[in-house]
Amino acid sequence: MSDVERYIEKRKKRSPGFAENFESGYDAFEFSVMLRRAREEAGVTQEAIAKKLRTKKSAISRIENNAEDIRLSTLNKYAKALGKKLKVHITD
To answer: What's the domain count of the chain?
Structure first.
């Protein structure tokens, strides 16, 4: 375990609020990475996907960097622009 991981675990134990906020923030970060990777693996630039979605590159950048508050309809359009399907699962 790295020093950073040890620090995070200690903070989570000391502060339930930190633990809750950390987890939700980390989930949003992981989701953002997933969106960017899907685009890159499809060989599509931010400019190209923006054009398909009739928006600006900056809007695509915001989607990929701050995905915690994104509409499902926008995600569906994003996936379609990559030639992919959006699937949503609810888990424990």
So the answer is: 1
Residue 72 to residues 17, 23, 32, 88, Cα–Cα distance (Å) = 27, 21, 14, 9
**Does residue 91 sit within a domain?**
no
Buried b (16+ CB within 10 A) or exposed e, 48-72: bbbeebeeeeeebeebbeebeebee
Rounded CA separation 39/78 (Å): 9
pLDDT of residue 67: 63
pTM over 0.70: no
Q: Quick one: which of 29, 34, 61, 36 has its CA closest to 47?
A: 61
